[in-house]
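Why do we care about 3D structure at all? Because function follows from shape, and shape follows, mostly, from sequence. That is the central idea of this module. The next example makes it concrete: a single protein chain, its amino acid sequence, and then its structure expressed as tokens.
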Amino acid sequence: MSGFTISDIPSQIGKRAIVTGANSGLGYETVLALANAGADVILAARSEKKGSEALAKIRALSPQAKVRLELLDLSSFASVADFSGRLNAEGQPLDMLINNAGVMALRQRQTTGDGFEMQLASTISATTR
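And the structure:
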């Protein structure tokens, strides 16, 4: 889509979004853009410290933003189940799920507590729960 910019995003007022891996990079920028377009955005991050720092930066840039931090470690089925349970209990529909989180270029093979290879764990957890 040639020439598309953030200013071309239509109003997202009344929409609810979850962005994984949202404390930095593309995930952070996606949260900021959706919040500026009026969406109610859940900044899903594995690290409370990094997530809180990203949330503070977004709130400083966009005080009107409807954005909140929720902890989510996609390499853990228990964390995914807890996260989805909390959100389901709220009883609000979800309009957008931006699956941005991932792990890349690990120096050596690692597995998660659930026994999956770390590189693939976020994809497995995000699609099976």
